Amino acid sequence: MLGRLTINTTQFCNLGCLYCYAEGGSYGGKPIHLSSKTAIEMLTGIAMRYREINLVQFIGGEPLLNLPAMRDCCAALENLVDQGILRRMPNIAAVTNLTLVTDRHVALFDKYHVNLTVSIDGPEKIHDLLRPNKKKQGRTHTKIIRNLLRIKNANFSYAFEVTYTRLHFEHHITIIDLLRHFSPWKPAGIAIVVAALPDGHPLGFADHDKIRTVLDWQVDAIGYCLNQLAIGRIVPYGLFLDMIHVVMSEKEFTGDFCPAETSNLAISADGKIYGCHMFTNQEEHELAFNNNSFPSLHGEDDTERATPDFLSETPAVIAHGKHRKLPSKTDFPECVDCWARQWCRICVGNMAIRSPGSPAPSWDSCELNRRSLQLILQRLPRSLKELSDGVPVS
Ligand code: SF4
Ligand code: SF4
Predict the structure, then answer these.
(1) What separation in Å is there between the alpha carbon of 283 and the centre of ligand 1?
(2) Residue located nearest, by CA, to atom 1 of ligand 1
(3) Degrees (nearest 5) of the Cα angle 229, 235, 238?
(4) What is the tens place of the pLDDT at every residue in 145-194?
(5) How many helical (H) and strand (E) elements, i.e. helices and strands, does the chain have?
(6) pLDDT in tens, 285-341
(7) Ligand 2 atom closest to Cα of 348?
(8) Residue 293 burial (CB < 10 Å; 0-12/13-18/19+)?
């Protein structure tokens, strides 16, 4: 089974976010739309090899700018299920700036229960400074709120994704402030991700003390979620939910920092395959279908044979051209002796942005992982017990 497949429907974007790692949506390439023909060919190739995809997620640019590709991909997935190529319909999702929603988009989201991840950076003043309209430099927050009100009672869920920058920090906005700010909307999730920016970027945190303060705020937010859990309230903070998920899952140690190239693949707008959308247009991370890997459509054990693990006998995708191996925990002596290595997750795409050419875990990522995991391992059982006993945490 493939965990997540992202499909980049377009490299155009209508916003000009000040921290965009994707260079305005184009990932350093030409701004192009994905054609429905290419999308369906790629989807079919992936479906035949994996037979099951947990999540298909549309991304961009701004994916809503290419509604025909989204619509044709959803219909193709249905066809693949009808033909018995896919065992079940994947969950479908889209990451959007939610500024361009029409009735036709809403109808599609409704039909396929498309879960939206809405990129929004918090209070209006901060958001409008960070995520302006590309052409008119206009404000976008009001538009997003208007569209959120429109979809609030619809048949699909939405989550928020905040990119936390130095601007938030300078306005003394903590992670807990943002969780409180978004909670009244009752979203399915609130991901608050510290912007991955190259050294010297004005929205980054070059200063060690500032990085440490933000890290403390992230760990405080984990404590806040545990306190809320003890009184029966679930705060859907992305980092908190992800960490509980890894702690509860009983996966064997593989050395992977994240799912890129193993259970995560990406189709780019020009029809290429990568281990993650964050590597789009980077030749050294391009993959290709393995033409020797066509698992039987009738056998029951074929998903095992179709894993993309480069060591397996019949990988579904293989290295293409000058492929460069992604960093692994087995490459770093400090990981080999680290107690958190079983559970720690670090985005290798972010590593590559922060240290181009020699991606490696940064001290703050390690400390965030270890401190958050420690808190969850120590306090989760207590919070759950207090919840069942009905005793609030002081
Ligand atoms: S926390 Fe840091 S040192 Fe420990 S396993 Fe993760 S990346 Fe390696
Ligand atoms: S590189 Fe980052 S975005 Fe891509 S799969 Fe890994 S964690 Fe997710």
Answers:
(1) 28
(2) 366
(3) 120
(4) 999 999 988 888 999 999 999 999 999 999 999 999 999 999 999 999 99
(5) 13, 10
(6) 999 888 776 554 434 444 443 444 443 456 777 777 778 889 999 999 999 999 999
(7) 1
(8) buried
At residue 293, the pLDDT reads 64
Q: Which amino acid is at 339?
A: W
95 lines ligand 2 (CB under 6 A): no
- The single-letter DSSP state of residue 351 is H
Residue nearest to atom 3 of ligand 1 (CA): 335
19-33, 77-91, 203-217, 375-389, range with the lowest pLDDT: 375-389
> How far is the centre of ligand 1, averaged over its atoms, from the C-alpha of 366 (Å)?
5
The ligand with the least distance to the CA atom of 364 is 1
pTM (two decimals): 0.91
Distance 258 CA to ligand 2 centre (A): 6
Burial class (CB within 10 angstroms; exposed 0-12, middle 13-18, buried 19+) of 221: buried
How far, in Å, from the CA of 256 to the mean position of ligand 1?
Answer: 11
Question: Is 370 a pocket residue for ligand 1 (Cβ < 6 Å)?
Answer: yes
Q: How far apart are CA 354 and CA 361, in angstroms?
A: 9
Q: How many angstroms is it from 338 CA to the middle of ligand 1?
A: 6
Which runs of E-coded beta strand occur in the chain?
A: 2-8, 53-59, 91-96, 115-119, 158-164, 190-194, 264-267, 273-274, 286-289, 317-319
CA 165 distance to own-chain centroid = 18
Count Cβ neighbours within 10 Å for each residue of 315-347 and write b for 16 or more, e otherwise. Answer: bbbbbbeebeebbebeebeebeebebbebbbbb
